[in-house]
## 1
Amino acid sequence: MSLVLICSLAQPLLPQIRVTEPDIRLPAEFQRVLQDYEAAWQKHDAHALAQLFARDGYVLAPGEAPVKGREAIKRAYANAGGPLSLRAIAFDSEGKLAYILGSFTRRKGEADLGKFTLILRKDTHGSWLIVSDMDNSIRQLPR
């Protein structure tokens, strides 16, 4: 029997440890981005979601081609939405650029379903818009 096969058979017997990063508190202007995203997603409002992005913003979803621009994002999110809770685990900003790293689930307090990275840019009106939204699902570990 090969070592790879032995290790793969033994793996489910090993304890599964899931580390969760603690939430961080965001400045209000950045927390607004997450709250507006949650609200638009929950309402299945593709137009409102697209408006959170810069005109040249991207959605980088797992297993999908990049989606660029508000109109394309609106089309991509046309059938998207439902329960969503976002939480930040890391953040920084300098000048006109910022990032938020976080995780998401359907409802606050539930186990994380995935992770995200938002890159933000301040527009000429002082609003923070999403330049890139990249997310991925957390692989479910066997129990």
Note: Residues 1-17 have pLDDT under 50 and may be disordered.
## 2
Amino acid sequence: MPAFTETQCQQQLDKYLQAEERILAGQSYTIKGRTFTRADLEAVQQGIKLWSKRLNRARRGGMRIAYR
């Protein structure tokens, strides 16, 4: 079972995408008590990457381990 559900991942990703839009429009945004401003764009984009990976993993049903 994945650590996060697909729904949880999608919700978090949506929050980060909204934050990115607002930062790019010159606004600040707060996620979980942390305020992001234009200077924090990189941190928000890292969050987008993280939650995108987690969402893809949840859609596949969890982590995959390759055996050699």
Note: Strands lie at 29-31, 34-36.
## 3
Amino acid sequence: MGDANCTPVWSIGTAVPSQRIEQDHVLAFMQRYYKADKRLERRLKYLYRRSHIVQRYTCCADFNGAQRPGEELLFGAEEPGTEKRMRVYGEEITGLAEAACRNALAGQVGLVATDVTHLIMVTCTGFYAPGPDVDLVGILGLRPQVQRLQIGFMGCQAALQGLQVADAICRSDSQAVVLLVCAELCTLHFQSEPTEENLIINSLFGDGAAAVLLGGSAASKPLCRLQNFSSFLVPQTQEIVTWHIGDRGYRMGLALTAPAVIRQALPAFIDRLLAGATLRRDEIDLWAIHPGGRSILDAVERVMCLDPQYLAGARAILSNYGNMSSATVLFVLKKVLHEAQDGQRRGVALTFGPGLSLEGLTWVRG
């Protein structure tokens, strides 16, 4: 299939909660919450300095350093259970998803809410039914006949899986217009036990949402066109990245061996991805990589022998937003597309998630 026949992406909208938290403030919160002794204080300072994150956004007032009038602290004297965290998720997630969707629909491409035929909701940080996808139909003014799908609990990789489903819909129906939204409230799942895994996870994650409008036809030139997808489930790696529902929120597991596994599996995976699009590595001008953490980006840069400029977008998103799970790679893709230079046309997007699994996409600008 030629580039002109590939699914067009018209706009990408992003949104974050109103509460911005500087990494230094989160560090101070963690030191107080854990009643850190000298050893733990040194460990926390090292992890937060090494994260290369300057700020993040959150739906929780706790991490700001100072409570504002009327704000409810979630992590007070008693750690909240899963039910209370899900109540906050239900109160906050639709507004965040709505903001991202409105930003995507305001992309001045000639498509409006009533043109949307399919709504895909991606989230792994909470659930309720009828869910945010149903809420969005009324709030955004989508048609009652819109076809809905929710992709849940697939973690940081799920944006590309959502795009793959959207692409399949658009390829099967040339009139289909898909609105894909990834919305995550990761900071709801702060864990109070100071294990090494929890300390690292608490230093990385933030909240955010991103929406993509794709398919159909519009008057303007698309941001890019989706070309080819590839997936790979690395054998015998099920315990490297995990995500379980506990009595005190969702418990994430993140093994320190994840970067090494990615380094080992990625070169062959990239070659298969590019072969599916009849491309060579030296034809790729742009890289949109999920910034799961500094060590993940370092591993990709090293094993793929990439010039640092190719990861500048991913590192900037990590620095200013942290890891927002599924939404993050769409923040990166938006930044990479808007900052691309003339002559830079072909790109790769990569995500990593529970499994351990690798998800890849090739795309072409315009």
Note: The chain has a mean pLDDT of 93.
## 4
Amino acid sequence: MKIPSGAVDPRTGLADRIRRARRSARLSQSGLAARVGVTSSAAAQWEHPDGTKPGLSRLQSIATATAVNFEWLATGRGPQLRGAKAESTETPAVKLDLFALDESEETLLRRFRRLSPRAREMLVGFLRELRLGKQV
């Protein structure tokens, strides 16, 4: 059984949530695949916007393997981490401030995602220094 199409944005939203869950659990795609009992290519497909989507039983296995709430993983609603309480009774399905606000931010985000982990750390450190320098 597949996730209903009424859930946030099933084409890219689910793929992004699976990626976020995997990364927060500090798992590689192959590590997640091993825990869920699928091939590495299946896990890679789940994270691709045009890739295949996991069925409900696999989605539950992903939520368990990454210690996230099933509801958050499936729909984007509620707290991400299992056992965490929602900040309010109504959690927005999409937090718009987490997305690029204009074309230049989108370009930066795309290029940032292509950087190696070491280069990302260096860039974030540089940006922190820039921000601290302005406060003086």
Note: Residues 100-135 form one domain.
